[in-house]
Amino acid sequence: MRDAAPQTIYLKDYAPFPWLIDGVELTFRLSPKATRVTSRIRFRPNPDAPSGPFFLNGETMTLLSARIDGAEVQPEITPEGLTCAVPDGPFTFEAEVEIDPEANTSLDGLYRSGGMYCTQCEAQGFRKITFYPDRPDVMAVFTVRVESEMPVLLSNGNPVDQGDGWAEWHDPWPKPAYLFALVAGDLVSVPGHFTTRSGRAVDLNIWVRPGDEGRAGWALESLKLSMRWDEEAYGREYDLDVFNIVAVDDFNMGAMENKGLNIFNSRLVLASPETATDTDFERIEAVIAHEYFHNWTGNRITCRDWFQLCLKEGLTVFRDQSFTSDVRSAPVKRIEDAILLRARQFREDQGPLAHPVRPESFVEINNFYTVTVYEKGAEIVGMLKRLVGDEGYRAALDLYFDRHDGQAVTIEDWLKVFEDATGRDLTQFARWYSQAGTPHLTVTDAFEDGRYTLTFRQETAPTPGQTEKAPQVIPIAVGLLGANGDEVVPTTLLEMTEAEQSFTFEGLTGKPVPSILRGFSAPVEITRESSGAEKAFLLAHDTDPFNRWEAGRDLARATLTAMILEDAAPDAGWLQGLGAVLRDTALDPAFRALVLALPTQDEMAAHLARLGHVPDPLRIRACHRALREAMSEALEDSLPALHEDAQIPGEYSPQAEPAGRRALGNAALGLITLRDGGARARAQFETADNMTQSIAALGALLAIGKGQDQLAAFEARWSHDRLVMDKWFGLQIALAEPEEAAPLTERLTQHPGFDVKNPNRVRAVFGSLSGNAAGFHAPGGASYALLADWLIRLDALNPQTASRLSTAFDSWRRYDETRQGQMRAQLERIAGTDGLSRDLSEMVQRMLG
Ligand code: ZN
């Protein structure tokens, strides 16, 4: 059915729920096609809310019976929920409903995955489980009984009791329904223990399918590391007797922070050296930490409504980023985060899907789990910390936990703790939450009589629904270098508040070289007319590692731009600087690997579009390739040694140091392979004893149009393993020649391993197609049509995943008329499909603008 005129929800319409809940008891009688859920909910009028009608959300379920205070009632049922006359005072509402987990392919609510039962309730999945006020500001204590013949029965909180075919759980901490979880399956646990700082003994379990036990150790270690870190860095302890993590194969997102029972996409739990790359290990560590940190930032203190999503996500991402900085390398982490933010969040800001970190309206909340809410949300927390300092930040966070524990709060509450703890007025700063778009800084400088002046102008381009932008508070970290590379002014934080503003440094003996926006101190773009020589100087001398990397990146982008637009030759000065950095063994190999990476083809397209050009994806690809060949030649003497240094004897370790060496070695291998016909990569593929080395060698070969035998060998070895096969599907599509991308993708959808119901597989295939810029935009538009076909097909099964993948089209206005026409036609075809979900229809409408 087509949703009758999907409704827009507005932040300004927020009203509290007229009742409070004193307790919830749920009983699940699990059965694949007919699960019975009985609920017993004790309501009482909310003294702080105006009265209103009694409405409970509820969708896709059958109400079997309902009672109020024990007497049968006949509620009125709509597609969205239930209304009923209720007593004036406190009352108990009971209901029995039937649901069909087997038929639930949306993976939202209660569903089946590989024979087990599991739930996903954020944001609004609980309303597919039973009738309930499914909104985050209604918090309640849950007691849950699960009945099933499955051997392992889990829910939130602490175990109460269990017997043959049943188990009972009680969660003493009041929580919103989106944090509810239940799992029942044939699972085994990899157990662990943690003793909190104040002496609470906590049982830890990573639950996996039998056979996967050997791949859960890293997740368990990461969990312990996170628990300790949160005690040390934030003074936050765990608050239950058990902490369970379950790996499931079919999951729309990365993972979910359900209270005491985190549910994870198996790709973010399972790892062994043979099956997971260094990047996978790092990502698992970070996501385990992220979900664990939600226990305080999200669960103990939650969001008043879904417009406040960044309250928990921005802060929790910031916390997981800080954790990774502490347990790995801070500069490398900062660079990785900046790369991601620019590639994805700046892209979002540039297109029709741009929205504020705190949106003011939505049709489908699932469409707002975006890089803007998450990653830009985290940047805002980072800026706050920079502005108030470490001590101010700690004081503000202490106050936040103190004042709001057990509450569902807003961004205003969050900013108020910073104001109260530090005395700072954050009225203007709050614009970071309400204004969409990436601020653009233009910088000029002047030097006279020992005074050096930096002048900044800020400007933010219009975004959908926001034409006028007011100036924002921008913390700009600046250092000044002297001609010999000495730092003459150490990192200083400038606070820009005006549209245009100058800052002066006195008492200098000569004109310095400025290092601006050190550590990427604000999520902005910068334009400054400066010479290549100055950038080369910074690449060689900047004491701030971020800006050192940034200088190299700027030069790479500049030389690529000149190649694309002016047919220029690769910049010899930059190649030389690059060589010097690569040979500097005092520098972290992971850092050097990052210096070696070029901006992606999609980023180049975005960059050209910003300069007012129409990007040609094939031309960008050709120049990208030519520049890599030039690198391969210019760095020829350094590369083999870097590659050899990455062949680390002994047992594989995913820690930062060896992983960094492998990253550099494999970057070198990629370049060597452009000139040696693939000999070295073939040898590495043959001998690799870990996935990092194996997949890097395969990628290097595929990138030069070889590697078909290795691809077949890889498949033969790993066809039984879903997670590894995701890599197999994804890699070949990502690296396909432009005109091959669509036909190959189509062929792979016929492969017996392709499963449209498994989001990981669908993402591996179609995410890689749209990630192959030249392949996605190949002449003729075959990739556009193929993606649209599958989005339509997928939408009928799984709207959330279809909707996310549709963002591949969000840059359509960047391109030439032919491509624009082809993409628009596909978007219109999707929009015109009967029965489209609210998720996908909102996205295509916004993209069509
Ligand atoms: Zn999160």
TrEMBL record:
Signal peptide, first to last residue: none
Cofactors required: Zn(2+)
Organism: Pseudoroseicyclus aestuarii
Record's keyword terms, sorted: Aminopeptidase, Hydrolase, Metal-binding, Metalloprotease, Protease, Zinc
Catalytic activity: Release of an N-terminal amino acid, Xaa-|-Yaa- from a peptide, amide or arylamide. Xaa is preferably Ala, but may be most amino acids including Pro (slow action). When a terminal hydrophobic residue is followed by a prolyl residue, the two may be released as an intact Xaa-Pro dipeptide
Enzyme Commission number(s) from the entry: 3.4.11.2
Domain Peptidase M1 membrane alanine aminopeptidase: start-end pairs: 218-431
Gene Ontology BP terms: proteolysis
Name of the protein in its database record: Aminopeptidase N
Coiled coil, from the record: none
Family that this chain belongs to: Belongs to the peptidase M1 family.
